[in-house]
Design goal:
Blueprint: E1 12-21, E2 24-34, E3 40-43, H1 50-58, E4 65-70, E5 81-84, H2 95-105, H3 110-123, H4 139-151, E6 157-161, H5 169-184, E7 188-192, H6 196-202, E8 205-210, E9 213-219, H7 220-225, H8 230-236
Parallel strand pairs: 3-7, 3-8, 5-6, 6-7
Antiparallel strand pairs: 1-2, 1-4, 8-9
Helix pairs in contact: 2-3, 2-4, 4-5
C-alpha cells in the first residue's frame, strides 16, 4: 500500500474540553493538538481519562463544554477515522466474515472485498485462518482481527485503547509491529497504554494524564529523558499518582 496523503481530519484540536458525568469531570479543561506523524501515546493511571479522550477525539462523545475540531472543522463525519476498543467483541462469524462485515459497513465496493479481506488478513498475520470462527481465535489473534476490522475503514487516523492489555510478549510484539507498519504507511496512530516500556518503544509523542487533566505532553525522548513535571517524574519512576 502506498503512502497516503495527510488526513483531512488532522490536526485534531481540543480546546478547554470538559466531559462531565454529573458533577464529576472525566476530562477537565483539556487542551491538546494531535498532529500527523509518529504515534501519540496516552499514559497515566486507571481513571486518568485516556479512554474518554480517545472517544472524544474519535467523535463518539460530545464535550460538555469546550471545542474540538478535525482539520479545522467542528463537524467532521468519521469516514477516515477508526477506533479499536480494549475488549472488542467478536462477531459470530469466521475470521474472514468479521472483516467482510467491517468492509461492508465501511462501504467498500463489493468487487474489491474478497481481495481486501486477503490483504487485511496478511497485514495482521492471520493468513490461513479465514474460516476459523473468530471466537475460537487466541486472545492475540482476536486483537489482530479487531485491528484488521478497524483498518477495513482505510483510516488515516486510528485510535487504539490498550490494544495489548493482558497479551503475552509475542502477541504484544505482533500488535506493535502492525502499529509500526501502518504508521509507516502514513496512518496517524493515537494509542493508550499502561506499559511505559511499550510507550518508549512506540511513541513519537507522549501525553500524560491524571484525573482527567493533561499533566504533560511532548516528544517521547524528551519526556522520558527530562520530564518537566513532578507527576511525570514520579510516574516514570514507578510511583503511584494519587
Amino acid at each position: 500500500m502506498s503512502m497516503r496523503t495527510p488526513a483531512l481530519d488532522l490536526p485534531v484540536r481540543l480546546v478547554d474540553v470538559r466531559i462531565l458525568a454529573g458533577e464529576l469531570a472525566i476530562l477537565d479543561r483539556l487542551t491538546l493538538t494531535l498532529e500527523a506523524g509518529p504515534p501519540t501515546v496516552l499514559i497515566g493511571p486507571n481513571g486518568a481519562g485516556k479512554t474518554t479522550l480517545l472517544r472524544v477525539a474519535m467523535g463518539l462523545i460530545l464535550p460538555s463544554s469546550g471545542l474540538i475540531t478535525w482539520g479545522g472543522r467542528e463537524h467532521s463525519p468519521p469516514m477516515r477515522r477508526a477506533i479499536m476498543f480494549q475488549r472488542p467483541a467478536m462477531l459470530r462469524r469466521s475470521t474472514a466474515g468479521n472483516i467482510r462485515y467491517a468492509l461492508a459497513a465501511a462501504g467498500a465496493p463489493r468487487t474489491r472485498r474478497a481481495a481486501r479481506v486477503a490483504e487485511l488478513m496478511a497485514d495482521v498475520g492471520l493468513t490461513g485462518l479465514d474460516r476459523r470462527p473468530a471466537r475460537r481465535l487466541s486472545g492475540g489473534e482476536q486483537q489482530r482481527l479487531a485491528l484488521a476490522r478497524a483498518l477495513a475503514r482505510d483510516p488515516a487516523l486510528l485510535f487504539l485503547d490498550e490494544p495489548t492489555a493482558s497479551l503475552d510478549p509475542a502477541a504484544t510484539k505482533a500488535i506493535e509491529d502492525i502499529v509500526r507498519t501502518v504508521t509507516a504507511r502514513g496512518v496517524k496512530v493515537v494509542m493508550s497504554t499502561h506499559d511505559l516500556s511499550q510507550a518508549r518503544r512506540i511513541a513519537g509523542e507522549i501525553v500524560l494524564m491524571h484525573r482527567g487533566c493533561l499533566i504533560e505532553s511532548g516528544p517521547a525522548a524528551q519526556f522520558f529523558a527530562a520530564p518537566r513535571s513532578e507527576q511525570a517524574r514520579k510516574f516514570i519512576a514507578g510511583e503511584l499518582l494519587v
